[in-house]
Amino acid sequence: MKESGNISIHTENIFPIIKKFLYSDHEIFLRELVSNAVDASQKIKRLSSIGEFNGELGELKVKVSFDKEAKTITISDNGIGMTAEEIKKYINQIAFSGATEFVEKYKDKGDDKGIIGHFGLGFYSAFMVASEVEIISKSYQEGAEAARWTCDGSTEYSISTAEKDERGTDIILHIAEDSEEFLDEFRLKSILEKYGKFLPIPIEFQDKIINNPTPLWAKSPAELSDEDYLKFYEELYPFQEKPLFWIHLNVDYPFNLTGILYFPKVKNEFQLQREKIQLYSRQVFITDEVKDIVPEFLMLLHGVIDSPDIPLNVSRSFLQADSNVKKINSYITKKVADKLQELFKADRPGFEEKFSNIGLFIKYGMISDDKFFDKAKEFCLLETTSNKLYTLDEYAEEVQALQTDKDGQRVYLYTTDAQQQDAFIQSAIQKGYSVLKMDSMIDPHFINQMESKIEKTQWKRVDADSIDKLIDTGIQLEAVLTEEQKTAVKEIFEATINDKQKQVQVEAMSPDELPAIITQNEFMRRMSDMSKTGGGMGMFGNMPMTYQISINANHPLISKLVELPTEEEKKNLAKQITDLALLSQNLLTGADLTAFIKRTVNGF
């Protein structure tokens, strides 16, 4: 059996769904109705510009008012207006967009980017909060008669002639009992400021214009000064510290996109701030959840993005993924990389001064985006403990001679805490080695990325082993102790420590090194560091910490220990040496630390 036909859609069934479920947040009604009023204003402006309306435009604006006693909210405009026939055409036909029809009609007569509407559903959001809606409208057309349309939210309506002197439209909402929260000055003002702060037509509320119709991103960068950008930032984010710099986005092919992205000051941690990048479509606020539009590593930026080409769902509240979203994401990544490269080349000293604040963005981007990595490797900087900054290529050249091991691997030594790991840093410096500061939360992930991207390079934390083992040049030191003495020393320390998580070994090191060094395996330590900042390494964070205690067979104190006459004296000195090693790694705490201090004071 084969049959074909037309799917039947009944207005009485679909209308309640549109009214109650199309928009997740009822406050959206004001955004939709004000946007419609802005469109009406833009249309008359457009007709005037192409000579199809020769009357006086006057001061175009949208007025929002409310009457708490009468329980009404009114949205008024002096835009294009409607005849009775147009009301029936645009209002009574659900999902018939007058905005789309207007754009199509005049598409050959210039730019119509200012028209907001698209789906033809926004008007019905009024019934989410109103028990009855009135429209009083008068068309711009010469001799047009004003019309009144009323509806109580059912599929029935009435339309009649009305008294109205000026062109334009008044939408009067008779607010339902369950929505009387909107009959409040502060509530209405906050909604208008949220969604309409930058609408292109002045919005009047309580006799004041509450929006900026010509926001900075809609202007040409050539006509703007640094002061303009800083003032706009303050408008977006009051009381915030000044941004470091900004990027003005402006592209019209293969998609339309404008906006301004600001780099705020961000130190060594991700700041989960309330202020985010705001997404607009034709100057109407949509959302501040822009994870698909903006690359993840730039989510810490501030600013505004506006694009009529960003695909929105029918309620204009959420993004819908498509090829344009990916293109915009790639474009923003490229613009940010180009800007950073430009700043680096134009003023390297200035760039270096800013790097403590922007390094987080750059490193995060290099980890998460290969295209960004390819550009950023030219301006990403590494800082040493002597506060010198190098590009990746510069640093590779800097350490090539001294920090290449017997296998031809360049070894990058780094510290995660220069204060705590100072003894190890000093040992490295005495050897003529350089130590990098890698103390931000992103650095464990960055280090892994660098090892996978840069050939013949290993990164080792400066306290991960004795310095001669960290950079194994193949030269073996001889121990002053005999094998028998080394075995005896190991047994003394094992008995003194008595901890299976701390493994003891005796080895030949420089006499200038500490008598004992406590270290953690580089792999386990790095996995533990990464588990603290996420990255799927949680299992390592839960594993018991194991350490290696390396006893310096060539240190005078170890030779002294061997010569002590009694086992008790040997254990006391071994305990003091072990606690000193633990203290150097901040692992000596509580009662053990107190006992160490007392022994030290009393000459143990």
UniProtKB/TrEMBL annotation:
<keyword id="KW-0346">Stress response</keyword>
<feature type="binding site">
    <location>
        <begin position="97"/>
        <end position="98"/>
    </location>
    <ligand>
        <name>ATP</name>
    </ligand>
</feature>
<dbReference type="GO" id="GO:0140662">
    <property type="term" value="F:ATP-dependent protein folding chaperone"/>
</dbReference>
<dbReference type="Pfam" id="PF00183">
    <property type="entry name" value="HSP90"/>
</dbReference>
<feature type="binding site">
    <location>
        <position position="82"/>
    </location>
    <ligand>
        <name>ATP</name>
    </ligand>
</feature>
<keyword id="KW-0547">Nucleotide-binding</keyword>
<keyword id="KW-0963">Cytoplasm</keyword>
<comment type="similarity">
    <text>Belongs to the heat shock protein 90 family.</text>
</comment>
<dbReference type="InterPro" id="IPR020568">
    <property type="entry name" value="Ribosomal_Su5_D2-typ_SF"/>
</dbReference>
<feature type="binding site">
    <location>
        <position position="32"/>
    </location>
    <ligand>
        <name>ATP</name>
    </ligand>
</feature>
<feature type="domain" description="Histidine kinase/HSP90-like ATPase">
    <location>
        <begin position="25"/>
        <end position="179"/>
    </location>
</feature>
<dbReference type="GO" id="GO:0051082">
    <property type="term" value="F:unfolded protein binding"/>
</dbReference>
<feature type="binding site">
    <location>
        <position position="316"/>
    </location>
    <ligand>
        <name>ATP</name>
    </ligand>
</feature>
<dbReference type="InterPro" id="IPR036890">
    <property type="entry name" value="HATPase_C_sf"/>
</dbReference>
<dbReference type="Pfam" id="PF13589">
    <property type="entry name" value="HATPase_c_3"/>
</dbReference>
<feature type="binding site">
    <location>
        <position position="36"/>
    </location>
    <ligand>
        <name>ATP</name>
    </ligand>
</feature>
<dbReference type="InterPro" id="IPR037196">
    <property type="entry name" value="HSP90_C"/>
</dbReference>
<feature type="binding site">
    <location>
        <position position="77"/>
    </location>
    <ligand>
        <name>ATP</name>
    </ligand>
</feature>
<dbReference type="InterPro" id="IPR003594">
    <property type="entry name" value="HATPase_dom"/>
</dbReference>
<dbReference type="InterPro" id="IPR020575">
    <property type="entry name" value="Hsp90_N"/>
</dbReference>
<keyword id="KW-0143">Chaperone</keyword>
<dbReference type="GO" id="GO:0005524">
    <property type="term" value="F:ATP binding"/>
</dbReference>
<dbReference type="InterPro" id="IPR001404">
    <property type="entry name" value="Hsp90_fam"/>
</dbReference>
<keyword id="KW-0067">ATP-binding</keyword>
<dbReference type="GO" id="GO:0016887">
    <property type="term" value="F:ATP hydrolysis activity"/>
</dbReference>
<protein>
    <recommendedName>
        <fullName>Chaperone protein HtpG</fullName>
    </recommendedName>
</protein>
<dbReference type="InterPro" id="IPR019805">
    <property type="entry name" value="Heat_shock_protein_90_CS"/>
</dbReference>
<feature type="binding site">
    <location>
        <position position="169"/>
    </location>
    <ligand>
        <name>ATP</name>
    </ligand>
</feature>
